[in-house]
Every structure is written in C-alpha cells, then in structure tokens.
Amino acid sequence: MTIREQTKLVKNKSLSFGKSNKILIQSMCDFKTSDTKNVIKQINECAKNGADLMRISILDDDDVNTIKIIKKHVKIPLVADIHLDYKLAIKAIDNGIDKIRINPGNITKKSELINILNEAKKYDTIIRIGVNSGSMPKNIKGKNEATKIVNAALQYIKFFEKNDFFKIVVSLKSSNPITTYEAYSLFSKKSKYPLHIGVTESGFDEIGIIRSVAGLSPLLISGIGNTIRISLTHNPIKEIETCKRLLHDLNLYKNYPTIISCPTCGRCMVNNTKELAEKTLNYCVKNKKYITVAIMGCVINGIGEGKNADIGLAGANDSYVIFKHGKILKTIKAKDALKSLYEEIDNF
To answer: Exposure string (b/e) for 102-131, b if CB count within 10 Å is 16 or more?
Structure first.
C-alpha cells in the first residue's frame, strides 16, 4: 500500500482527500475574483479540461462577496486563497466556499486562528495549511529550509488539533524543486494528513514544467501527493494539461492519450513529424481517444520502436505506412496520412 493510500481521509460534502490513490488536479484563476464573468468562464473551461477544483484569490470584500454568485454557476469545488486578513477567511466560509488556504507566515495571532477554526467547524469547511518558503513564520527553526517548512506546518497542525480541528490538507512549497522534494518527503514520515503538492513560482513554459516535474515526479512515484498543481506563468488550462500528462505518464491518470514520436535524425524520410504528432495528440484529446499512437519519421526502425503502440504512422519517402501493434496495415499517400490515421484511431 502506498503512502498516498495511507493518508488520513479528509472530506466534506463536496471534497475528499486522502485514503486513495486518486490525485485531484487543481489550478488557480488568474482574474481578480470580483471579475465574476471571466472567473466563472475560466473555472468552467478548466473543469471541462480536467480540473477537479479551482482556487480563487480573496484580496478584499469585493472578491469575497462574489463567492455565492460564482458557486451558482460552476460545478466543481472552490478554494479561497487567504492572506493576512483573517476576517476574509471567515467571510469566505460564510459564503459557502468548499475549502480555504491560509498561510502560517501571515496569519499568526492565535485569537484570529481560533475564529477561523470555529467558523470552519460550523460550516464543515476544509482548511489547507499552505506553507511557502518565501513567507514562513519568523520563529521557526530547522537545520535547513526543508526542515523549517515542515516544522512550520507541524506547529500549525498542533495548534489546529489542540482546538479540535482535523479537516486539514497541507502543502509545503518552495521554488526550489529539491527543497520541495525534501520537505514533502520529510513531512510524509511525520504526519498522515493529505498533501497538496507543487513547486511554487516555478516559471514559464518549459522552465516551469521541467522544474515542477523534477520536484514532483519522485514524490508521486513514492506515493506522496493527494492533490497537485503545476504552477506556470501561463493560462491555468496549460497547468491542467501539464498535470494530466505528468500523472498519465506515471500511470496515475487514465483518461489521456499517449503519443510516441521519434526525435528525428538523418534517417527521417519526412519533415513534418512534429506537426503530425501535435495534430494527432489534439485529435485524440478532442475525441477522447485514450490509446497509444506512434508518429515515426521512418520505417527503418520506426515500426520496431513503436511496436507497443495501438496505432502508428511512419514516414516512407513520399508515402506513409500505418501499422497496428507493430504490423503494417497499409501504405498511403502523404496527403492522405492524417485522414487515414484518424480513421484507424476511430475504429480501434
């Protein structure tokens, strides 16, 4: 049994974390929450693309007062991101938010925390203790950054439990993937609360993707992580797609296609392998074809390398061959390649 399955079960009427190998995918709206129209549209687009829950920023009363409106027009649970002002946390809970995230580094007064906990108990709201290496409490000690992050979380948890609150999810984020890995690994040995994993402020495009995957893959393989966000300087849909691809490649997300394509070399007989692979991926995603498809630049070793694919396409001078589980089905003209491939995918 993995660590993921051994975590505590934390749930309310709309969310369930832990005690399962299922990993929830989440992202965060990049509009101000009071921009209700765009926020609702974005949340629904993200849900359509695979988000299990979405986080929204709560900066002021304008934001917190829109929660009830947003909730009426979306189908997935919402997380309110709260910093500094404990009253916004209470208002978010009162307005029906499913979960809140608070930071130990900027809500430190015991009286304020107790007020939040009492309100969360009243409305059965889950709280994520979101520790961030860039904003930790000043009194936290430890031999390194990862230890300090874990100690901050444990200190907060101890206070929550002392006040009879146990519906807790924890995150321990750093912009350094090694620190992130070390913090989550250490925490998982000390506590069984469900974990939301992510590398914070990871960057844009392949910089953020590589940095996040470097820190999160070993955690996921080790059975650590109950929810995930890959934070990118990009539209949240890109975050969701990246999460799905990572989880899929680790056999943790079934509903996604597998595309195999060769790196191309001097043997390549066609010059559009990348274009064909991208179009095939988009076609499979759009049409919910969760199979393995190989797009190879030649037939010299393309079919052999792609023999485990359900369906494949390999370049052959001015033509292509379509193969199935390593066996050639037919040879087709270049202009008909995608059409014929899509027909085989549909009929698989």
So the answer is: bbbbebeeeebbbebbebbeeeebbbbbbb
pLDDT at 23: 97
Q: Please list the helix, strand and coil fractions of the chain in percent, rounded to the nearest 5, in that order.
A: 40, 20, 40
What does the pLDDT average to over 319-324?
89
Q: Which domain holds residue 136?
A: 3-249
pLDDT at 135: 78
Asked if 297 and 332 touch (Cβ cutoff 8 Å), the reply is no
φ, ψ of residue 79 in degrees (nearest 5)? -115, 130
If asked whether residues 67 and 204 sit together in one domain, one would say yes
Q: Specify whether 219 is located in the same domain as 270.
A: no
Identify the three-state secondary structure at position 206.
helix
Task: Write out pLDDT tens, residues 6-57.
Answer: 999 999 999 999 999 999 999 999 999 999 999 999 999 999 999 999 999 9
Please tell me the total count of domains within the chain: 2
Helix extents (H) in the chain: 3-6, 36-48, 61-64, 67-72, 86-94, 110-123, 145-162, 177-190, 205-221, 236-249, 273-286, 302-305, 337-347
pLDDT (mean) for 119-138 = 90
Q: What is the CATH number of the domain that holds 123?
A: 3.20.20.20
Whether residues 199 and 277 fall in one domain: no
What pLDDT, on a 0 to 100 scale, did the predictor assign at position 268? 66
Last residue of a domain, one of 217, 249, 281: 249
Instruction: State whether 131 and 60 are in the same domain.
Output: yes
